[in-house]
Structure formats: C-alpha cells, structure tokens
Amino acid sequence: MKTLVINCGSSSLKYQLIDMSTEECMVQGLVERIGIEGSVLTQKVEGKDKYVINTEIKNHKDAIKLVLEALIDPVHGVIKSMDEISAVGHRVVHGGEKYSDSVLINDKVLQSIKDCIVLAPLHNPPNIIGIEACKELMPNTPMVAVFDTAFHQTMPKHSYICPLPYDLYEKYGIRKYGFHGTSHKYVSNKVAEVMGKDLKDLKIVTCHLGNGCSLAAVKNGKSVDTSMGFTPLAGVMMGTRSGSIDPSVISFLIEQHGYTIEEVDELLNKKSGVLGISGVSSDFRDVLAAGEAGNERAKLALEIFYYKVRTQIAAYAGAMGGIDVIVFTAGIGENSSITRKEILKGLEFFGLELNEENNEIRGKIQEISTEDSRVKVYVVPTNEELMIARDTAKLVK
Ligand code: ADP
C-alpha cells in the first residue's frame, strides 16, 4: 500500500509518497509560490537527480495535478500510474474539540473542518483547498484528515480552560487546543519504543523546537498539557512569534501608541520572538552565529529562548509529578547541541546529567544523558509524515 501525504500551506504544498509495507519514504517534494510568480516544484527521490519543474502554478489544484504528474513521470517518478496510490493523508491544523483522532474524510467531516476555520483562519483554508483538489483529481481514492490538535484533546480541563469568564469557552470555544500534536505523539511513542518501556509508565516532556516551538507534557502516553494555546502564538518564544506575554501589552500599544489590531497581530506573529529581540533573523542558525560573533542582542535572544524552554520543562515536572524523559525534536531541537545544552543547564537538580559527547551526535535517535542520569534525555528526529501515513493506512484498512 502506498500512501500520499499532503501538507498544504497558503502558497506551498509539501508531499511524500510512503510505501507502508516498509514505511519508507519513496519520494518527497515541495511546491512553492503557488499563485505567485516564480512557482516551482522540487522533487527528491533517493538515488536520482533532483527534479525541478518551473512552470506557472495558478492554484492548489494545479499544484496537485503537477505532483501527480511528477510521481508518475517515467524518468523522475516512482510509480507507473495514479492507481498505485491507495490513500491520501492530509495534515489539517485544527480539528477543534470534535476530533481527538484522525478521521476518514467524507462530506460531513469536510464541513466540520470548514466549521473550524474561525479557529484557524490562516491554516485550515489551505488544508481544505488541498482536500478539495485531491477529491476532484482522485475521486475514488480514500482520504484521511490528521489533525495537529487531536493528540492534545486528552488534556484535562484544568490544563485547557482559560481563566476567563467561562461562557467565552461555551459560546466561542476559547480554550487551549495545542498544536504540533502529530509530532509530539510521534516522538513520545518513538522514545518509549527505543527505551524498551511501555508508554503507560513514562512521564515525558517533548520539546518541538523549529520555526514554531511547543512543548508537551505526555503522561502515560497522553498529552496532559502543552505550551501552545488557543492559537500557535502562545507558549515559549519562537522564531518570529512572541509566545505568551502579558495581554495588556496589546491594549497599551493600541490605546497609547496608535497601533491598529492588524499591526499588533503582525507584530506578535511575525516580528517578535528571536527575530524581534536579536534584530538579526528568525533563523536560529543566523542568531547562533551572530551571538558567537559577539552580537549582544543575539546573545540576549538566545538567553531568553533557553530560559523560556527551560522553565516550561520545569513546569511540566509539576504537571506530571516528575519527569522520566525529555525529548528534543524539529529543526533546532534535532540539530543544535549548544541549544540543548544551554536549555538543560540548571535542571541538574532533577537528577539530570548531559553526556556532552553524545550530545554532539547528529542525524539519528540518540540518548544524550549519561547512564547515571535519573532523568533521561533523547534527541528523536520527528516524522509527522510517517505518522500521518500510519493513521491513514490504519483508517483505510
Ligand atoms: P518548521 O517549523 O518550519 O518545520 P524546522 O523544524 O525545519 O521548521 O526548524 C527550522 C529552524 O531550525 C530554523 O530556525 C533553523 O535555523 C533551525 N535549524 C536548522 N538546523 C540547525 C542547526 N544546525 N543549528 C541550529 N538551528 C538549526
């Protein structure tokens, strides 16, 4: 069985075709600048040259058409016909309170994903466009929606209810939903497997540190708390997002300094975080380099980032009554040994000891705590696509 995994953004589309008999990724690709001048599809197959198509891609339907053509291309493709694709798994950002697991897509499900647009106005619309385009082009292929929010639906009320008038939750659905759920689920499952332990016996803190950053407290295999909230703006500081701040800053900027709501929204989402403090870049590599070169604001941005993640980890010890394992994943978490080291500094009182040599190893699952460390620490490369493909295959069977 071959499963196509689609992750549609507003002007981009990432895809992978996964052979479920081996769980191997046969091909991965990216379509960029959909609907914008300079559209391009780039496809990579192990052992073959990179396949690049520069052509006008007006919309997501055109993009998916081109993806299917690239997949069956006699030279650069990996399958003979579209019929070899048994199912399509779509990443969907927001499933609201309705979905605590992945689901086979039918008209009713599609409508409920549309109903969640109010909660994720930037993310759910492109996800829906991707589903609708696939439905048109591959009407007989079953499709599954895998939600970023689903894994966190196990959070207890004391984690997810905001301390606001309760009727805002009842009337408008204002609560913590949490995101990156597919990644937190994947790495928490994987670390238990690697440790040879039952998930049910572990208290895990998963740290997904990429452009967007979130942590989750995973107790007995269930998410009991996570740092992102009603939207992916909350929690720890990120590349361009502020993370949680005193909400009064917003009315202060509007009332005292004439900002508009749109400007504040842009400021918090696109101009804050590591970029906002360093003034250098939102890309962590650039900020690390600037910090090393002596840039004081870059150093400060890094210090704050480490501090926010460190204190969030410590908070989850309180949430779970202790920590057995800490897992680092995503672009920064998987690749930056200095970041992991700095975050963990100060957490030694938990009985945590870093194995500095192992912390330098990259590109694979790695235990980076010492043998004697009571709290174990692992780097686990995330694989959201595989998780989506697994859920898709399970539901289609
Ligand atoms: P996304 O959330 O968009 O999927 P990624 O998980 O790919 O993002 O993470 C992107 C971030 O990872 C960027 O800030 C990038 O600088 C950072 N990153 C990638 N490689 C390294 C590295 N070797 N050292 C430090 N940061 C890195």
Automatic annotation (TrEMBL):
Pathway: Metabolic intermediate biosynthesis; acetyl-CoA biosynthesis; acetyl-CoA from acetate: step 1/2. Mg(2+). Can also accept Mn(2+). The active site is at 148 (proton donor/acceptor). Transmembrane segments: none annotated. Substrate binds at residue 91. It catalyses: acetate + ATP = acetyl phosphate + ADP. Catalyzes the formation of acetyl phosphate from acetate and ATP. Can also catalyze the reverse reaction. Homodimer. This is Acetate kinase. It comes from Clostridium saudiense. The gene is ackA.
